[in-house]
Amino acid sequence: MKKLIAVMIIFCVTFGIMRYLRHSGNNEETGLVSVDSGMVLMMGTYARVKAVATDEATAERAVEAAFSALNEVNQRLSTYIEDSELATVNRKAAVEEVAVSEETYKLLERAVEFYEMTEGAFDITVGPLVHLWKETGQKNELPSEKKVKETLIKVGSDKLILNSENGFKVRFAVEGMEIKVDAIAKGYAVDEALAAVRQVGAAGGLVDIGGEIAVFGQPEKRDIWKLGIQNPFAVSDEELNTSVAWKLAISEGSVATSGNYRQFVEIAGRHFSHIIDPRTGRPTDAMPSVTVIATNTQDADALATALSVMTAEDGLKLVESMDSVEAFMIGGTADKPEYHKSSGFDLYIVR
């Protein structure tokens, strides 16, 4: 199994790797100062926070507040922390109702809404399928059709019972179910962190967790944030890491990219996407790259995953039905790429 992390490049940045770095910049014309955390290992990927303020002390407090918010989310939702809310749900919800915080409950509620609006293309109960493909992949084998069908019985957010009477509780209808919120939790964490940056009083900010990005205000040296989308058909890791195929200009909002070119499983010499279609139980290669722009990262994150397993026609129909959402889907092959954009996506592309 080969895993590589991150799906978007931020322009004009000095990256720090696996340690907390603070890079300060200032601009005499705007009177703004920026503090950049660099890339920090968190939530199974890399996180980065940049805060812009009228003074360095405020910018530093904003960065610290953002990481405090990220840590709080991780403590609640990480399945690698034994006593986290989500780990407790996965361990006990098949036999009894499990109490969770209102924040976690609302996240699960929103996930179920996406399950319904995408007709099952987005599903946080995909955990058993993820484990199946991981286990068979480690043996360099494909799972049998019988095993896939048996596992699908344990999947489906319609089997997730949410109860908000007298508190907030979660229950599984089927034994063996497991929640994985990776495809929405990173976006949720980004939103929480950016809210913390705002609350401290920063004039602008950026939060990036594994390519799920949110911005507001302005950078210290320009009037708009510029982000980049990588080419999913890049021929080498070096090209993927250093080149930008499309540039986006965002003043405020969120961008999430999902794709199979960074994370995949190799079985019998073939690459299989880490994104599994919960409707079929099998990895999907329908869309090598999907980028979604939305007003919040939680929704952008979930939609990017859902569109990765939907047809271009169905995906664009869904996006066009939603307010303040745009999408850019890249399908096909390196020789014959196929580009599918929602009606307003070109407004964000820098020519």
Task: Give the topology, please.
Blueprint: E1 2-3, E2 8-10, E3 23-27, E4 32-36, E5 40-42, E6 45-53, H1 56-77, H2 85-92, E7 98-99, H3 102-117, H4 127-138, H5 145-152, E8 160-163, E9 169-172, H6 182-200, E10 204-209, E11 212-216, E12 225-229, H7 237-242, E13 246-250, E14 253-259, E15 263-267, E16 270-273, E17 276-277, E18 282-283, E19 289-294, H8 297-309, H9 312-320, E20 326-332, E21 337-341
Helix pairs in contact: 1-6, 6-8
Structure description:
A hairpin with a 4-residue loop joins strand 20 and strand 21 (about 335-340). With about 350 residues, the protein is an alpha+beta fold. The strands form 5 sheets. Strands 3, 4, 5, 6, 10, 11, 14, 19, 20 and 21 form a 10-stranded antiparallel β-sheet that branches. It has helices at about 55-75, 85-90, 100-115, 125-140, 145-150, 180-200, 235-240, 295-310, 310-320, and strands at about 1-5, 10, 25, 30-35, 40, 45-55, 100, 160-165, 170, 205-210, 210-215, 225-230, 245-250, 255-260, 265, 270-275, 275, 280-285, 290-295, 325-330, 335-340. The longest helix is centred in the first third of the chain and has 22 residues, at about 55-75. Helix 1 runs antiparallel to helix 6 (about 180-200). The chain is built from 9 helices and 21 strands.
Instruction: Please state roughly what percent of the residues sit in beta strands, choosing from under 5%, 5-15%, 15-25%, 25-35%, 35-45% or over 45%.
Output: 25-35%
Radius of gyration equals 20 Å
Structural class call reads: alpha+beta
What does the oligomeric state look like here?
single chain
Helical fraction equals: 25-40%
Point out poorly predicted stretches. Answer: 1-21
* Major β-sheet profile: 10 strands, antiparallel
Q: How many helices in DSSP terms?
A: 9
Elements, N to C (H/E): EEEEEEHHEHHHEEHEEEHEEEEEEEHHEE
What coarse outline follows from CA principal-axis ratios? globular
> How many beta-strand segments?
21
Report how far apart the termini are.
Answer: 38 Å
Q: Mean pLDDT score, rounded?
A: 88
